[in-house]
Amino acid sequence: MPTLDRSTGASAFNGLAGALKALALEAGVLIDALLSPRKIIEEVEEMRALQTRADRIEATDPQRAAVLRWHASRIGLR
């Protein structure tokens, strides 16, 4: 049973370490966003332009509209 206790403790520690690492990465992204609001505004404007173009062509070319929307959804993830 002691082996099981050790492996469970190690697993819990690895989970905590992973959570803290994810928290640190998210905090870094937040700080970058706060320090460069112009970049965020430009990304939002680009996404809006893609969405507007997709809305305009939806009736005539639904596949292209879907592609434009997909690209718009990926902008903030770069």
In short:
The chain is an all-alpha fold and 78 residues long. It has helices at 2-35, 37-57, 62-74. It is built from 3 helices and no strands.
How many beta-strand elements?
0
- Class from secondary-structure proportions: mainly alpha
- What does the main sheet amount to? none
Assembly type of the chains comes to single chain
- The stretches of 5 or more residues where confidence is low (pLDDT under 50) are none
Annotation field: number of helices: 3
Mean of all residue-level pLDDT scores: 88
Distance between the termini: 47 Å
Order of helices and strands: HHH
Instruction: From the alpha carbons, calculate the radius of gyration and give it in angstroms.
Output: 21 Å
Q: Which strand-content bin applies to the residues?
A: under 5%
Helical content stands at over 70%
Judging from the principal axes of the Cα atoms, what is the shape? elongated
How does this model look, in words?
This protein is mainly alpha-helical and 78 residues long. The radius of gyration is 21 Å and the shape is elongated. The chain contains three helices and no strands. It is 87% helix and 0% strand. Helix 2 (37-57) packs antiparallel against helix 3. The chain has helices at residues 2-35, 37-57, 62-74. The chain starts with a helix and ends with a helix. The longest helix is centred in the first third of the chain and has 34 residues, at 2-35.
